[in-house]
Specification:
By secondary structure, the chain is mostly helical. It has three domains: 226 residues, no CATH class; 171 residues, no CATH class; 222 residues, Hypothetical protein af1432 (Orthogonal Bundle). It has 31 helices and eight strands. Strand 4 and strand 5 form a beta hairpin. It is elongated, with a radius of gyration of 45 Å.
Length: 714
């Protein structure tokens, strides 16, 4: 049992990585659609490449989205809104009118005939004639008001302002009866007022009498407009209910296919009609398959997911084994894959937006930022193949997004320049648009058949890609990664540590600058991370700030403190700058990747001067070489190996008294060959060919630095 646990403990890192892959596979499996997948791929206006296909069962032929939208638009365009008729307004306004008329008539009569009070008015000789005249006028106006209300008063200004749609007819609901009315047959408040006034004027003209003329001012002053209110109002609830019912009554189908009926033969061109039938069969087939055997579908989804993730594992195992050893890095990559598939799954379930809106190119952009182009492209391709199980047009989706991902990777050469991301987003949108345009022309056979709204989706996609910039910052801080932008910030010589280095140890600062230039040139030639190696080179000797005078590049007074120390003490002083540099870097929160350069830039080499001096002084003693050796570790990446070479070569070149091409070449070859002989590069992924290239870069660079100048006459 103890051996079993020992094996588990020994393989715990591998078990952890495998568990990440297994958990990711299970999550992706549950995110997969739970309906079956149609086995055939087909495109409109292309030949049917499979065997003859017959209807396996009865199924309806679905209308296209364009046809359904046309029918919906037709209903909306021809729909007549519903208005309710308020019958209670007629008696209310008639009662109000008669009360107002009686009161105003009495007041006017008292003033006109100089009658002191109501009693004398009723005893007046003209009372009977006045009462008859009042009744005739009052009945006439009341009758006109009733006729106007029965016909209906409507105000459509608010409706027009809200809908912007002009009406010629409407539906009016009176009780339980709904009838269509022409707008011109109804009154507006203005036309109702004008109509009643016109009718009253005609009535007065037909009954021209002396008594009536005395009441002309009364009739002119009586405001009929007070009793004219809208009694036909828009019924939004009923209108929306009827509209919804009409929409629901639209048939989704335009026919049926009977079991055994031939759909398409091999080699036939898939016309729009056949394409619609095949799409309908695909929809019904996937639904039926999903309902029949959900367990089998889950097993199939799990197998597909495991195969895809196994390919990712094998890719890293063969080409990037160092990533498999870093649990955080592999967790981040799998997390990105799961997140992209999760977004696609949510989009599929909600069906609110097009898949073209989702910025899938964010995946290769982020991976390209923290890893290399090969990883970004491979992970993107695998992820898009998995997402293709969610989308309706798998081939079109995969082609568009893989090409867009490639454009994103190729165009993002320097993400620390924010303009590059904007340019990249534009190029991604352009690639989407151009490829989609070409595919649409092939499928539709004409430009007019292209769905223009997809270009709008591509534009939104490009805008959403810009959120990758803040996402990179979030992931960088969460997972301890380094982006190009952060490396540019670290390489700024105005950073606190570098400013201190230039002030406290100016010689070391100049040495670090030269090492950075040498290492950066070599990294460019080898395709390494030039920004990372430059930042590492600038900080690799910060430990010398503790005792700068013990390092020869900072000794300007001619006094060497090593003259008063034993060789072992001097070696300790020199070697300690590595550990002190690590402490200082951690104190100032430098990233671990930069600290690794500080740890490895001397590897496990010896402090040759003091080691040989000790042997020379004490030839009889057995020397413990470890007392004169750096603690290591040796470089574990190509960039660390380059920095180690550049550091040693630059420092040695400063000790030369006579410099020419031959001397420089011999110096560079001897130093780097010695480091190879001491096996300093055994753990770094660097080849002999690359080391030869590095030597050539150093030789060219140092020749330019130490080139001979002509002597000017005094």
């Amino acid at each position: 049992m103890s051996k079993f646990f020992e094996k588990i403990r020994a393989n715990l890192p591998n078990i952890t990585v495998w568990s990440f892959f297994i958990i990711s596979a299970i999550i992706i499996m549950y995110l997969f659609p739970h309906e079956g997948k149609f086995r055939y791929e087909f495109k409109k206006n292309s030949p049917w490449m499979h065997d003859d296909i017959q209807a396996p069962f009865d199924f309806p032929i679905y209308k296209s989205d364009a046809v359904l939208q046309f029918e919906r638009d037709s209903i909306l365009n021809n729909f007549l809104p519903y208005f309710s008729f308020d019958a209670y307004q007629i008696p209310e306004q008639r009662v109000a009118l008669n009360a107002q008329f009686n009161q105003q008539w009495l007041d006017y009569s008292l003033r006109k005939f100089n009658i002191a009070n109501d009693t004398l008015y009723f005893e007046n000789a003209q009372y009977e004639n006045l009462r008859k005249l009042q009744a005739d006028l009052q009945n006439a106006i009341d009758s006109l008001l009733e006729k106007v209300y029965l016909k209906g008063i409507i105000d459509l200004n608010t409706y027009y302002d809200n809908t912007g749609k002009e009406l010629t007819s409407i539906i009016i609901v009176k009780g339980n009866i709904a009838e269509e009315y022409n707008i011109d047959d109804l009154y507006t408040p203005k036309s109702a007022y004008e109509t009643i006034n016109l009718q009253i004027a005609q009535l007065l003209k037909s009954k021209n009498s002396r008594l009536l003329r005395r009441y002309k001012d009364f009739i002119d002053a009586f405001d009929i407009n007070k009793f004219l209110v809208v009694n036909i109002v828009y019924d939004e609830e009923t209108s929306n209910k009827v509209k919804t019912n009409l929409m629901e009554e639209i048939s989704l189908y335009q026919g049926m296919m009977q079991e055994g009926q031939l759909i398409v033969s091999k080699g036939d061109i898939i016309t729009p009609e056949k394409f619609r039938i095949l799409e309908s069969l695909k929809t019904e087939y996937e639904l039926k398959l999903g309902y029949i055997n959900t367990f089998s579908l889950n097993v199939g989804n799990l197998v597909i997911t495991l195969v895809a993730l196994l390919l990712i594992y094998l890719f890293f195992s063969n080409f990037r084994p160092e990533i498999l050893k870093d649990k955080l890095k592999i967790l981040f990559i799998l997390l990105m894959v799961v997140l992209i598939i999760f977004v696609a799954s949510i989009t599929k379930k909600l069906s609110l937006i097009s898949f073209y809106v989702i910025p899938f190119a964010i995946l290769p952009i982020i991976l390209r930022t923290f890893y290399d182009e090969r990883i970004a492209l491979f992970i993107h391709v695998i992820t898009m193949l998995l997402v293709s199980f969610f989308v309706p047009n798998s081939f079109e989706f995969v082609l568009l997004n893989i090409l867009a991902g490639m454009v994103a990777i190729f165009s993002l050469t320097s993400l620390y320049r924010r303009s590059r991301l904007i340019i990249s987003a534009f190029l991604i949108v352009l690639s989407y648009s151009v490829v989609y345009f070409g595919m649409a022309i092939v499928q539709e056979g004409k430009v007019s058949g292209i769905e223009l709204q997809n270009f709008a989706w591509f534009g939104i996609n490009g805008i959403l890609i810009l959120i990758s910039y803040p996402l990179i910052y979030v992931f960088e801080k969460s997972f301890g990664f380094l982006s190009d932008a952060t490396l540019m910030e670290l390489s700024d010589t105005n950073q606190l540590l570098l400013r201190k280095l230039s002030e406290i140890a100016p010689g070391t600062f100049q040495h670090s600058m030269q090492v950075a230039n040498l290492a950066e040139d070599a990294a460019y030639r080898l395709g390494g991370n030039a920004l990372l190696i430059r930042a590492g080179a600038l900080y690799h000797d910060i430990g010398k700030m503790v005792d700068p005078i013990y390092f020869i590049e900072n000794q300007t007074s001619g006094v060497n403190p090593h003259d008063n120390l034993e060789f072992e003490e001097s070696a300790d002083k020199i070697i300690s700058h590595v550990s002190k540099g690590v402490e200082m870097a951690k104190k100032h929160n430098l990233p671990e990747q930069i600290i690794d350069f500080i740890k490895t830039h001397h590897g496990t080499t010896t402090v040759q001067y003091f080691y040989k001096s000790y042997i020379k002084k004490y030839p009889e003693e057995d020397v413990d070489v470890n007392r004169f050796s750096y603690p290591g570790p040796t470089p574990i990446t190509k960039e660390m190996a380059i920095l180690m070479m550049a550091d040693a070569v630059e420092a040695a070149s400063r000790s030369l008294t006579h410099i020419n091409d031959v001397v420089l070449e011999e110096l560079i070859d001897s130093i780097i060959d010695k480091q190879q002989k001491e096996e300093q590069f055994n753990n770094a992924n660097i080849t002999f060919k690359e080391i030869t290239t590095i030597k050539e870069v150093f030789k060219k660079r140092l020749r330019n630095i130490y080139h001979v100048r002509i002597s000017y006459p005094k």
